[in-house]
Amino acid sequence: MKRLLSTPLSLLGLAPLLGASDLLVKALGLALAGLPVLAGFGLLLSLTYTRISGTAYWLAALLSACTLVSCADLLMQAFAFELHRALGPFLALLILPCLQLTLGEPQRPSTGLTLGLIFALCALLLGALRETLGSGTLFARMDWLFGQNAAHWQLDLAHFSGLQLFAHASGAFILLGLLLAGGRRLFTVKIDHS
């Protein structure tokens, strides 16, 4: 049963990553929220796994994920309201990568931190690529996160206005596929059978 549920849920865990990475600032906001949420959830999960089992474990995991995501949502709303509005429902979808951790074997406390770092790195990489290829800019709308002083940080690529495909979710899927293929090619160790 866990194996059947794990594949669709791990794909659903990509929803906030793919949906909110059209601008680097949105990806940065998602990374800044996702990293502590996933790290905290991994720690809470490792503490509760040995004490609670069965249905109570799943309810505790869901409650913990919802609490951490709600705290991140309120902090983002308080300190970066424009970015919070731009992220829309994708901030709440951080619950999905959290629940992805519950499907595996018992986790170490550092598993959530590791997943959070991978999530943040992927978000930043996708955000930078999608903004550059999709609109021909970089660091656009940084004032949403860093205030009015960051309004002039935007870099425009000379003679390139972007390809709209990469600004949409379909472009995110294409770029993520290329990144996964490149990462697999880069990190696969060849075994010599001689």
TrEMBL record:
<protein>
    <submittedName>
        <fullName>Electron transporter RnfE</fullName>
    </submittedName>
</protein>
<dbReference type="GO" id="GO:0012505">
    <property type="term" value="C:endomembrane system"/>
</dbReference>
<keyword id="KW-1003">Cell membrane</keyword>
<feature type="transmembrane region" description="Helical">
    <location>
        <begin position="30"/>
        <end position="49"/>
    </location>
</feature>
<keyword id="KW-1133">Transmembrane helix</keyword>
<keyword id="KW-0472">Membrane</keyword>
<dbReference type="InterPro" id="IPR003667">
    <property type="entry name" value="NqrDE/RnfAE"/>
</dbReference>
<dbReference type="GO" id="GO:0005886">
    <property type="term" value="C:plasma membrane"/>
</dbReference>
<keyword id="KW-0812">Transmembrane</keyword>
<feature type="transmembrane region" description="Helical">
    <location>
        <begin position="163"/>
        <end position="181"/>
    </location>
</feature>
<feature type="transmembrane region" description="Helical">
    <location>
        <begin position="86"/>
        <end position="104"/>
    </location>
</feature>
<keyword id="KW-1278">Translocase</keyword>
<keyword id="KW-0813">Transport</keyword>
<feature type="transmembrane region" description="Helical">
    <location>
        <begin position="56"/>
        <end position="80"/>
    </location>
</feature>
<keyword id="KW-0997">Cell inner membrane</keyword>
<feature type="transmembrane region" description="Helical">
    <location>
        <begin position="111"/>
        <end position="129"/>
    </location>
</feature>
<dbReference type="Pfam" id="PF02508">
    <property type="entry name" value="Rnf-Nqr"/>
</dbReference>
